[in-house]
Recover the amino acids of this structure.
């Protein structure tokens, strides 16, 4: 069964940057639509960004537009979330998720989830 592993979280000052990674050891993610979610303390989990399996479609929630970028490596084995100009309200546990879906459809529906990586934005 597909297992996702996130890495790259940590403590960063406001205005700083982090790059989160998501990998599935032993699998290629090329046939999966991928998404990043986050859950802030005391709040529900929310979708942050998604990318279609063919890479043609990328969506972002309004609060992160222009600051976050979703991407993947050329082999389709690792997905990234580049986070720039981080704000305290970006603090939370970030999860990557996957849904087997060919083509250019971007979705926040997900069957497979990672365990999350903590991002803390604080001075």
């Amino acid at each position: 069964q597909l297992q996702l592993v996130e890495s790259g979280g940590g403590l960063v000052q406001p205005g700083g940057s982090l790059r989160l990674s998501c990998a599935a050891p032993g699998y290629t993610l090329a046939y999966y639509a991928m998404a990043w979610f986050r859950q802030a303390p005391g709040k529900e989990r929310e979708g942050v960004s998604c990318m279609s399996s063919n890479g043609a479609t990328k969506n972002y929630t309004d609060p992160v537009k222009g600051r976050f970028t979703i991407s993947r490596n050329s082999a389709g084995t690792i997905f990234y979330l580049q986070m720039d100009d981080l704000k305290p309200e970006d603090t939370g546990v970030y999860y990557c998720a996957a849904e087997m879906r060919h083509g250019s459809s971007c979705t926040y529906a997900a069957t497979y989830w990672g365990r999350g990586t903590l991002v803390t934005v604080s001075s």
User: Anything to note?
Assistant: The longest strand covers residues 92-100. The radius of gyration is 13 Å. The mean pLDDT is 95.
